Amino acid sequence: MATERWNSPVTVGFEGVDARTVNGPFDALKCLADLWPSSRGLRYIKARSTCRAALDGRKSVEEARAEFLAAAEEAKLKLH
C-alpha cells in the first residue's frame, strides 16, 4: 500500500537535485527508479525488491527502510 510509512523518515542527497525526504517504501521506489546514480549494485536490487515486498505486505516497512539505507550507503549518497 502506498501509504505505508517508516517510523523515521530518511533524507537523501542526490547529485543535481535537492535532498529528498523518503517517508516509506513507495517514496523509496520512486527514488530508486528516478534519482538513483547509474552505478547500481546488489544492495540497490535488494532494496527495490524489499520495498515492493513491503508494499505488498510480504515484508515489513522497517525491513524496506534498512535495505534502502544499505543501498544508499552502497551508492555513496549523503544521508541526513
TrEMBL record:
The record, for Pfam families, names: DUF982
Sorted alphabetically, which InterPro entries does this protein's record hold? DUF982
Return the protein name. Answer: DUF982 domain-containing protein
What is the native source organism of this protein?
A: Rhizobium vallis
